[in-house]
């Protein structure tokens, strides 16, 4: 559990997508003369993008945390909430924070450079049917393979 | 061939050769020079959507270019009919783009988001007479309506507490920033604000944030992201193409 505690101090950096999605989709210059894809279309699409990005980031956080947990038993027999429940000394808030910052680190590691690795990482955690409960407000609804 | 637009920069700013742009497979990124200005562009992919990988590619290209020189990032999803339309636009408002680039030169954006946390709920209830009253009422006569009212009041209290903590951090960052801009409303956030910060002050901002965020961790979840391209500070001085 000390492993998780160590991670709490890390902060998400520029590589994270989730926390900058609103800026990428809502800010930045737009000049009407330029537009062929209508903004209306993007408005609709970005709702979708938020769901996909949020859920994938959540999976990545869970996956990373699970990978760091030192378990005596086969992890496939446990659900994510059970893993957090079993964390004992690490409270819910601590796990949540760790989840968030670890997610940031994962994104940093995936980097802003390599789309294929990114995709590969995206799909693995998505197979796990993780319950949203233990991640509290950071978890958004799950979304299937729309990411493709 | 329609053109995907990443942003506008100065003509001399290099675009990394190995940049992987929006598209599947990732599109090439090139520069269209127009006088002292240049547009960072690529071929627009068929069926452009706000896919995760595309949005990530957009952001990656912008981060790479912004690391090399001043950049006005475009919002994700701007597509232009052809190259001539891009360069014509840059020529038409060259002064506006030039001054917008001066504003962001040597600076970057940091984004602060804050959300409520549930820690210390007992303290919150103790410190709020209305919450105490609702809690007692709820215990005395349990029911749906009183539960809803209690829950609403607790949520409002958590948000108020988080917003107060967020304001403290925002004030510390504002002192170090050249400009501040509110961000779009984001579900679950009590504060979303961006700061235009000189490159040599980013470390100081990070340090100020870290110490404040740690102190306030029992009141708000605080997240500072950046350095980012200056999404929130790239508006042209005068409305273009009116």
Say how many strands of chain A there are.
0
What kind of assembly state do the chains in view correspond to? heterodimer
Structural class of chain A: mainly alpha
Helix and strand sequence of chain B: EEEHEEHHEHHHEEHE
Task: Name the average pLDDT of chain A.
Answer: 49
Q: How much helicity do the residues of chain B have?
A: 40-55%
* Major sheet description of chain B: 5 strands, antiparallel
Kindly give the count of domains of chain A: 1
Task: Specify the number of helices of chain B.
Answer: 7
Low-confidence blocks of residues of chain B: none
Tell me the number of helical segments of chain A per DSSP (H or I, 4 or more residues long): 6
Indicate how many domains the architecture of chain B comprises: 2
What does it look like?
The complex is a heterodimer of chains A (148) and B (242). Chain A has 148 residues and is mainly α. Chain A has one domain (2-134). Chain A has helices at residues 2-7, 21-26, 39-68, 80-85, 92-110, 115-127. With 242 residues, chain B is of the alpha+beta class. Chain B has helices spanning 52-66, 83-92, 94-104, 121-126, 129-140, 144-176, 202-215; strands at residues 3-10, 30-34, 37-43, 71-73, 79-80, 107-116, 179-182, 191-198, 220-228. In chain B, 42% of the residues lie in helices and 23% in strands. Chain B folds into 2 domains: 3-105; 108-232, no CATH class. The mean pLDDT of chain B is 91. In chain B, helix 5 packs antiparallel against helix 6 (144-176). At the A-B interface, helix 2, helix 3, helix 5 and helix 6 of A face strand 1, helix 1, strand 5, helix 2 and strand 6 of B. Chain A: Gas vesicles are hollow, gas filled proteinaceous nanostructures found in some microorganisms. During planktonic growth they allow positioning of the organism at a favorable depth for light or nutrient acquisition. GvpA forms the protein shell. Chain A: This is Gas vesicle protein A. Chain A: Residues 84-148 are annotated as: Disordered.
């Amino acid at each position: 559990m000390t492993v998780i505690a160590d991670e709490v101090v890390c902060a998400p950096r520029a590589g994270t997508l989730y926390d900058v999605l609103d800026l990428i989709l809502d800010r930045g210059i737009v000049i009407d003369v330029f537009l062929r894809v209508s903004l209306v279309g993007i408005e609709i699409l970005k709702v979708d993008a938020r769901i996909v990005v949020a859920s994938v980031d959540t999976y990545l956080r869970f996956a990373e945390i699970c990978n760091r947990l030192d378990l005596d038993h086969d992890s496939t027999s446990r659900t994510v909430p059970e893993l957090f429940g079993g964390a004992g000394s690490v409270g819910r808030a601590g796990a949540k924070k760790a989840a968030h910052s670890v997610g940031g680190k994962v994104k940093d590691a995936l980097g802003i450079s390599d789309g294929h690795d990114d995709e590969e990482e995206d799909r693995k955690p998505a197979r796990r049917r993780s319950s949203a409960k233990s991640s509290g407000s950071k978890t958004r609804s799950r979304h299937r393979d729309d990411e493709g | 061939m329609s053109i995907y637009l990443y942003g506008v920069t100065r003509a001399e700013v290099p675009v990394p050769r190995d940049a992987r742009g929006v598209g599947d497979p990732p599109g090439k990124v090139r520069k269209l020079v127009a006088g002292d200005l240049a547009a960072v562009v690529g071929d627009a992919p068929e069926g452009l959507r706000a896919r995760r990988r595309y949005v990530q590619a957009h952001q990656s290209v912008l981060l790479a270019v912004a690391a090399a020189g001043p950049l006005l990032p475009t919002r994700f999803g701007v597509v232009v009919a052809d190259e001539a339309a891009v360069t014509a636009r840059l020529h038409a408002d060259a002064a506006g783009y030039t001054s917008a680039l001066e504003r962001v030169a040597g600076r970057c954006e940091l984004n602060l988001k804050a959300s409520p946390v549930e820690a210390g709920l007992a303290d919150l209830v103790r410190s709020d007479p209305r919450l105490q009253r609702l809690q007692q009422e709820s215990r005395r006569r349990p029911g749906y309506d009183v539960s809803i009212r209690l829950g609403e009041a607790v949520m409002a209290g958590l948000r108020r507490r988080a917003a107060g903590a967020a304001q403290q951090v925002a004030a510390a960052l504002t002192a170090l920033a050249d400009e501040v801009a509110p961000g779009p409303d984001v579900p679950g956030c009590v504060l979303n604000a961006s700061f235009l910060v000189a490159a040599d002050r980013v470390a100081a901002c990070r340090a100020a944030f870290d110490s404040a965020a740690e102190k306030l961790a029992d009141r708000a979840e605080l997240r500072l992201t950046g350095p980012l391209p200056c999404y929130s500070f790239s508006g042209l001085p005068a409305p273009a193409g009116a």
